[in-house]
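new request in #modeling-help
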Amino acid sequence: MHRIYIKQALQLLRQNKLISIISIAGTALAIMMIMVIILIEQVKNISIAPEPYRNRTMYMNQMSMDSKTDNWNYAMGIEYSYYKSVISQMKTPETVTALSSTRSIVKRENSLEFLSVSTALADAGFWKIMLLDFIEGRPFGSEEAEAGMKQVVVSRSVAEKLFGKENVLNESIEIDFAPYRIIGVVEDVPAAFTYAQADIWIPYTSLPHYEDYSYDILMLARSKHDFDAIEKEIRELERHENTISEEWVIAFAGPHSHRAYLISGGDEDALDVHKKANRRMATLFVLLLLIPAINLSSFSMTRVKKRMEEIGIRKAFGATRPVIMQQVLYENMVTSLIGGVIGLLLSYGAVLLLKNWLLGIKSWQVGIGGMGSIPIEAFVSWPIWVSVFAACILLNVLSAAIPAYRASRVLIVDSLTQNKE
Amino acid sequence: MWKHIFKITWKERRLNAWALLELSVGFVVLWICVDYVYFVTQRLTEPWGKEFEHTYWVYLGVKPEAAEAFYAGDTEAVGKMLGTLWTIYDRMENHPAVEHIAMANGVRGNTYYKVDSVMKSVFSEWYVTPEYFDVFGMNFIKGRPFAGEEDLAGNKVIINGDYDHSFAGKDATYVDKITHINTGKEEETDFQVIGIVEPVKRFGYERYLEGVYHPLNKNNPQLIFDRSISIRVKPDADIDFAEKFSNDIREQASVEPFYFLGVNPIEKSNKLNLQQYRQYDETKSIYAISAFLIVNIFLGVMGTFWLRAQSRNSDIGLRRAIGASKASVRSLFLREGMLLLLIAGIVGIIICVNIILLDVLGVMGLPTSRDIHGSGIEAPVSAGQYFINSAITLLLLAIVVGISIWYPAKKASDIQPVEALRDE
């Protein structure tokens, strides 16, 4: 039975070429816009190297300090002293790490030419949460990091730009005029991975006055289910700090899951921002589906009107209302599916072409080696297939529901005499 | 003619209802987009109060030894470094291509100033050398720039107001004294206003804000680490200036503990800096949505009128047989489209007014153009703005509808009367 519908549907498409093209184009455009949004969501949130543990990482980057004695209150990045005394003592997470970044001047000794690079200020824990691809060498370990040894891991592009080759292990470079030894070389990190991204990685302990910087805190949980336990532990530690401190009452903003962190930027009222972001997304999807649905609906209505006679005959021969509705929906489905496939392909193209803008990557966040690639896994993951299919079905229902319903309610008598119009 | 068109439209009201719905929804969304783009474009095209053509930032790095000496309290070494800084500064000033050079130190965050008894938060506060106003071509409405050392001693300032030159609610041209309020120590300091410049923007999306300029203290050791150097280049020398200047000045400017990093055109830097504000990405999203809408309306109207032309085959054939011209058939279609658009426009405007009044956008978390940092007050949508937005939206849609009806209308008017009547 269904094959007949599909055959009929294809025939119908051929009959009125312009309308078919318009319908498919409209569907494709809507699906493209929707899938672009979902693809970007995936790229930003998928757990894949060099950030393979996004789904069980929590983030914090802000805290507030209120004076107990005066009227001072500060909202600021997380001070190193608090990281050291409070957060690094946490028991629930598997690893806790502090991360900061800056820009540095990098050059070879006795050379006048320098490179302006983005520098990640990290500790040993960084390498447990991020999985960078080492071409040679190794990351700095915890003893080395604590001792403040001047070691650096460089990206392949930095190595090639400074030395003309990528095997630069044990070479010495000057970072802001201080000599460092290269202990590792990694493949460039694509700009899409904002936390793992840098041109060079050094232990922050190797910098003078590193305690004065503020840091992003990343906590790797043993499993996603530990998130609540982690939050509880942080609140406990806050309470403890606040009772023993004479001067300050502190509070950490967060901790946030990866998705929430991206949306809120680490702000305290993450829940509110999250809600607003969801509302915005919902409005956008409604708009993207509704407008084409209105178009397609009107076309379907006209088509149904033209085939009143045929519908009447089928009803006279015993076709029930649901059967008629099914027919209209199926015919529409063919348009939706063809449009959906085209839309999906177009969305891949759009994301590949416009990745800078769509991912919100600013020109100063792009490494020496360029933008890098987008993880292909994000393009073919199951949320993508589910979303495309759901969008097609949704669009189909929205655009054919009313015409299908009207078609099924037509009285046989009226439809058979309709041609006298 | 129009009475006839009304009749036709009413007769096909079922089909027209769909088209009307789409045009109304499209109108509303497009109206909001037009409002956003108009507002942002207006902000971006307002004069900044500074001239950036032929101006460059000069970047000077400082080696870690300087910080060590500073923290160690080695006043002699620090004094020497300051001297070096100004020597480098003079060398750059003497370069033949440089017309003016200035050093400036900005105040982070905001400070509070009082005029008469009105207190205002000031976000734009600078310590500048006298040539600062020449580098940026800032016009004085009243008064004069800093002359020299005497101005430093005498607590003198130069200010700029915001729109209508207002400074803390008073017309800046009549302000001759402002009072700085140190909220922590609870003390107040009076400053004498010796000059007033045109309103200044800090960045493109922001509105004009009150600004205060103090004379730069050349002996401030902080300058070693924290200052910006800007130069204005002679127009005829501004070809490949960055490369030439860098090559000329690199050695002379790289004296311990300083090293020459490079120069950057300020215009380019300003453009790049826009990226850090949400309006930058939002504007692109708004364009994307508008394009989506326009394409959909285009497709929808074309499809609707195509089907209409088909179903009116015999109608049109009859008209042509009686003697109607092709043009009149086409114009019939066009006018129907415009009538639909007009009705949709009226419905749309009513909806838009309500949306703005009820702040639906804010509730839904959608970007409103007006809440840009520093404004404090959200600029309301003025009656005039409603009119402008509606007019632009209507015009845009009229063009889209007109173009999309053209093909079906042409097809319809090309129908041979004989063929059409045969179907009857």
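bot summary: The interface with chain A takes residues 14-15, 18-19, 21-22, 25-26, 29, 61, 63-64, 67-68, 259, 261, 272, 275-276, 281, 284, 288-289, 292-293, 295-296, 299-300, 302-304, 306-307, 311, 363-366 of chain B (CB under 8 Å).
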